[in-house]
């Protein structure tokens, strides 16, 4: 199993995080993003979107972090991380969609502006961040985990860009439940951080 990876990418970290927590061996292949390697002929053949991460396992090639999490959990039959029961799977899936939508357009977008110089409308990214962080805070005031009262791939999908929010000028100081949730994830056996998310 190969993961074409960028260390500073929260999306790549989602996959590395889950693999570490679930004891899944991955062949991590660093990609020179600043050098444009993600746009090389080889990488575009794997992912025409020209983005990272890219996952390769035999004949399976996946280009989306959430999809990779699903594949790894189901391939290894890790029911605790992604159940096959329809209602429970859907509970996890709705949080994967949150990672791809509200978190992507909030804390992640703010970080893209401040850390990487993307030309996005910063006030909109801040407003989006405040909305999703308020919703997460409310949920986590009553739940230790996002879904199913235990760690799942939902937590792996949502946590990285939330934890990295300060790198986009979005403070987490007013979100005690979110901070406790991040700490719970960091305390899980096998947790391995990334720049900006230390253990």
TrEMBL record:
Q: Which PROSITE patterns match?
A: GST_CTER (PS50405), GST_NTER (PS50404)
Q: Where is the GST C-terminal domain?
A: 85-199
Under the heading PANTHER family, the entry gives: GLUTATHIONE S TRANSFERASE D10, ISOFORM A-RELATED
Q: What is the similarity comment for this entry?
A: Belongs to the GST superfamily.
Subunit details = Homodimer.
| Name this protein carries in UniProt | Glutathione S-transferase
- Looking at the record, the residues that make up the GST N-terminal domain are 1-80
Q: Which organism is it from?
A: Alteromonas confluentis
Native organism taxonomy: Bacteria, Pseudomonadati, Pseudomonadota, Gammaproteobacteria, Alteromonadales
Against Gene3D superfamilies, the record matches this protein to: 1.20.1050.10, Glutaredoxin
List GO molecular-function terms, semicolon-separated: glutathione transferase activity
Among InterPro entries, the record links this protein to: Glutathione-S-Trfase_C-like, Glutathione-S-Trfase_C_sf, Glutathione_S-Trfase, Glutathione_S-Trfase_N, GST_C, Thioredoxin-like_sf
Keywords, comma-separated and alphabetical = Transferase
Biological process according to GO: glutathione metabolic process
Report the SUPFAM superfamilies cross-referenced here.
Answer: GST C-terminal domain-like, Thioredoxin-like
